[in-house]
Here is the input.
Amino acid sequence: MARIARVVPEVSLDRAFDYDIPDALSAEVTLGAKVRIPFGSREIIGYVVEFPSDPSARKLKPILEVLSKTAFLPPILIELAQWMAQYYCAPLTTALMSVLPKAVRRADATFKQRLWVEPLTATLPEEAIAALKKTPAQRKAWDHLQQNGPGWLADLTEICGPAAWRGLAERNLISIESRTQDRDPFLHTPVSESVPHESNTEQIAALKIISEEIAAEKPRVVLLHGVTGSGKTEVYLKAIAQVLALGKSALVLVPEIALTPQTVEHFRARFIGQKVGVAVLHSHLSSGERHDQWQHIRSGRARIVIGARSAVFAPLDNLGIIVVDEEHEHSYKQEESPHYHARDVAVMRGHLERVTVVLGSATPSLESYHHAKEGKYRLVELLQRVEEVQMPVTHILDIRPAKKGDPPILVAPRLIEAIQTRIDRHEQSIIFLNRRGYASSLQCPQCGYVEMCPNCSVALTFHRRAERLRCHLCDFASGVPHACPQCGFAPYKYAGSGTEKVEHALVDAFPNARIARMDSDNMRGKDAYAKTLGEFAEGKIDLLVGTQMIAKGLHFPRVTCVGVINADLALQIPDFRASERVFQLLMQVSGRSGRGQVRGEVFVQTRVPFHPSIQFARHHDYTGFAEQELDFRRSLHYPPYERFVLVTAKGRNEEKTLYVITQLAKEMERLDLPETEITGPAPAPIARIEERYRFQLFLRTRRIMAVTPKLRPLFMDRAWPDDIRLTIDVDPVNLL
Ligand code: ADP
Ligand code: ZN
Here is the structure.
């Protein structure tokens, strides 16, 4: 029997502390248990993570109380948190806290208890009938209960006052008892059972491979590359059905933006007959709903979990499969400590639990594709759309003005014409308006030229204050040319993309069309989003205009025209993944077109019509794009061939911030990191945000597993000045 428990306290330290387990508590102190402990002069909460055989100190304080009746965190999640703390250089507490949601950790986190009213008899006894004649309010209350069935007292007192109900209870005609009220996010969205589609040949082949991995002793990751509309979801659903039949559970991750009611209903409808319980975890849940969903998962009541990033930590027992849909999505990366990537955590969790992980995408990340090509993952491809639906025809529209001095083209005449045809034919269009990706890039409005770093092939960043163009990967810098180096256009500085102007132009062009706009500004509540999508699905809207919010995963068979207003914006982001992002985006948006019987068309407006990302997307050629891009990444030592670590210092005082990160850089040099190159410090591409100056250090390494443990002590429990914030991001996706 263990005598000592190692406990991680809920304070922001990278340490666990040992406590003595009193005899009286020995049965309750399990791995993952939530306990009350003395800590300095206070008493705080902590979580048991280990049972060491040797104490770390001579005299240990005792655990005071166990606050969780059963093991609170499944041991596997403790292991996952420990790995995450190591790999992402985060304090163990921070890692544990992200595994365990706040809604569950809170001191007052419980199920909601409310008073429930139920009749105790089916018919009124004689004497009660007589008595109720004298109390009409009680009679009314009784009749209501007879007609409408049992209910919550709080709702019933709106029908008759509380005295009437109390009166009925005193006569022993009804019971009023405290009960758990489930805060059910699906309360108002009933679904009816759906039947599986009969799989086509490609789906059968994909399922065969996934089944092999489900049954394998040491399962591998399966990369499911399936073009848009190829029926990936159907493959997930069937794989999950297999896992459920084995008595196991399933975890499905989707990007937050794709976690629409449509998606969730799909899963609920398929499994509602099997009574296995589907839980959701996402950011729109109330704290109470989140608590209840988590507890249902923990208790085994829900055996399928669908959720966004943090759902990778769902406390499912007896896991049988993990699905990561749209695995290439950047929203899987958490932008605060621990800076984890949910796809990579999912792969790790699959490894620890020995379950297969299915990564699905129409445009797999180059990291995953590389693993598949190296044989580390199994690659499965769905290259045809289901039911012989054809891929759309993509037209590239060059919007450079024909002559110098001509006004910029907002919406090309061909696109206007195409939308008009759809309106006439009662088909639908989606116009994709990407916001300016990045505030400090320069593209010549005349010829489309963007100045690139001669060493790194990323767009140079325009630092307005210093009037310099600079590369934040290698620190190359130059002055800003007065005129465009390619075409000589004088007012070279980019004058804004005019997204609002585009919107107005569309409204002006189609005065009689029903147009709806969708972006994060006007779609605050989840209801607004669902409502607009619902109207669009019913055909009440002709033209849907929006940001990336509408690019992902939606399925509307009547959409036959998709327009992209400016494909170049994302190319100007000073990031080595810019080409990949543009390619993915174009493939995703074009995936919205022609999912029904009529072949779709896609119109892409650009000033760089021959850019490889645009050309490969036009031919729906993922493999061609991936091969070329991987060659390029290899030659420049970019991920997936080498790994990046990005260190950022932020502070109000510019000199001090630079000084601190310079010191940090010196200490790093002294660590003698194997096969690692450190560049910087240099100003971040966005050099200042909210009055804070930002400087970066870049590490490139071939030996990430050897490097992060060495870096970790520099960031943990170290006294850097309070007013400078240091962050470390391993495998960063946002380099700004
Ligand atoms: P993806 O996720 O690959 O873009 P979906 O899974 O959304 O594609 O499938 C597109 C549509 O095709 C959905 O409406 C789906 O119900 C339907 N579908 C999937 N598999 C089949 C099949 N084997 N036969 C007929 N329809 C199918
Ligand atoms: Zn460079």
